[in-house]
């Protein structure tokens, strides 16, 4: 799976502090060539090299206009605690820094069959929509953006949105000012031609998905993206057998299959994102069923139980046998 990506060096042209926790980075190819074409909702994987040799790989949504491939822009929120990537980007990356970037991949594309597009963003979840908005406007589509954040100083890009061409189609919901997004009322008011798109914290995504189902909105009309995978509340420990070596590993609650393999040095597995979005750690299931937590496989592929992403997915039962 790893060869599906192309890799190239990019130089940081600009670093802007958008909020106390979010920075925007402008990137261009080091060799001066145009960057690969992309569509709104695409992400790239950024590889970062620490001075001590440690490497981080994080997936970030592209937020620049897809019509302009002279540069890309990404936004990075400083996480607490950071797994390494966000801290590196915030504390070590400056104008002139060279990074390694993957070609774009899109798991959150606009559905061309929809007559209307309702975009719902929470916090840093605004980023993929910033690239989708110019696409929607250029195509003459009917769209609206609902953007919720906790206070004005934490609403990344909202001044640009309200001063730009999408202002009339954008509504802000600022918690500190008593403005609350009523998800039930919003979804209840949609007609059958509208599609929903949501990106942001997991509670927001779950609320949109659950409300849409309660109101009879078909799953095919609800699209969501979240890079940070979450472990289900009822997820316990389980065993994994690596069929090629016969080794059996115990995967504790809160630990990924990939972490268990790496901790035991039981096999060599490539994984770029560690968040279930890049597809590089896709592994064949020989026995057992997986609780799929990735965003890479389609619903049909998940139901088939042929493969899983070992960086985030877990056993549905007590054990799995994998082709490793």
From TrEMBL:
**All copies of domain FAD-binding FR-type, residue ranges:** 5-111
Q: Which GO terms describe its molecular function?
A: 2 iron, 2 sulfur cluster binding; metal ion binding; oxidoreductase activity, acting on paired donors, with incorporation or reduction of molecular oxygen, NAD(P)H as one donor, and incorporation of one atom of oxygen
What are the TM regions of this chain, as residue ranges? none
Q: Which UniProt keywords are given for this protein, alphabetically ordered?
A: 2Fe-2S, Flavoprotein, FMN, Iron, Iron-sulfur, Metal-binding, NAD, NADP, Oxidoreductase
> Which reaction(s) does its UniProt entry say it catalyses?
(R)-carnitine + NADPH + O2 + H(+) = (3R)-3-hydroxy-4-oxobutanoate + trimethylamine + NADP(+) + H2O; (R)-carnitine + NADH + O2 + H(+) = (3R)-3-hydroxy-4-oxobutanoate + trimethylamine + NAD(+) + H2O
Obligatory cofactor(s): [2Fe-2S] cluster; FMN
What is the cofactor note?
Binds 1 2Fe-2S cluster.
- Which pathway does it take part in? Amine and polyamine metabolism; carnitine metabolism
| SUPFAM superfamilies to which the protein is assigned, alphabetical | 2Fe-2S ferredoxin-like (SSF54292), Ferredoxin reductase-like, C-terminal NADP-linked domain (SSF52343), Riboflavin synthase domain-like (SSF63380)
Q: How does it assemble?
A: Composed of an oxygenase subunit and a reductase subunit.
Q: Which family does it belong to?
A: Belongs to the PDR/VanB family. CntB subfamily.
Q: What does this protein do?
A: Converts carnitine to trimethylamine and malic semialdehyde.
Q: Which HAMAP family does this entry report, sorted A to Z?
A: Carnitine_monoox_B
What name does the UniProt record give this protein? Carnitine monooxygenase reductase subunit
This chain's source organism reads Pseudomonas cremoris
């Amino acid at each position: 799976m790893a060869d599906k990506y192309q890799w190239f060096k990019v130089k940081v042209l600009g670093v802007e502090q958008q909020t106390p926790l979010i920075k925007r980075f402008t990137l261009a190819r080091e060799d001066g060539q145009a960057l690969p074409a992309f569509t709104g909702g695409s992400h790239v994987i950024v590889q970062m090299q620490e001075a001590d040799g440690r490497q981080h790989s994080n997936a970030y949504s592209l937020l620049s206009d897809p019509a302009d491939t002279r540069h890309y822009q990404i936004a990075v929120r400083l996480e607490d605690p950071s797994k390494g990537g966000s801290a590196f980007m915030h504390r070590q990356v400056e104008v002139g820094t060279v990074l390694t970037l993957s070609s774009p991949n899109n798991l959150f594309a606009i559905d061309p069959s929809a007559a209307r597009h309702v975009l719902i963003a929470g916090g840093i979840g605004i980023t993929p929509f910033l690239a989708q908005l110019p696409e929607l406007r250029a195509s003459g589509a009917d769209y609206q953006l609902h953007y919720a954040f906790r206070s004005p100083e934490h609403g990344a890009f909202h001044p640009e949105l309200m001063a730009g061409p999408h202002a009339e189609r954008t509504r802000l919901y600022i918690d500190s000012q008593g403005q609350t997004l009523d998800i039930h009322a919003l979804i209840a008011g949609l007609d059958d031609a509208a599609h929903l798109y949501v990106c942001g914290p997991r509670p927001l995504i779950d609320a949109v998905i659950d409300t849409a189902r309660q109101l009879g909105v078909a799953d095919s009309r609800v699209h969501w993206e979240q890079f940070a995978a979450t472990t289900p509340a009822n997820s316990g420990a389980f065993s994994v057998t690596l069929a090629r070596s016969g080794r059996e590993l115990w995967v504790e609650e809160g630990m990924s299959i990939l972490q268990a393999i790496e901790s035991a040095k039981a096999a060599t597995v490539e994984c770029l994102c560690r968040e279930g979005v890049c597809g590089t750690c896709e592994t064949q299931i020989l026995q057992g069923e997986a609780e799929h937590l990735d965003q890479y496989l389609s619903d049909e592929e998940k139901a088939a139980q042929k493969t899983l992403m070992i960086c985030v997915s877990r056993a549905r039962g007590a054990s799995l046998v994998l082709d490793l």
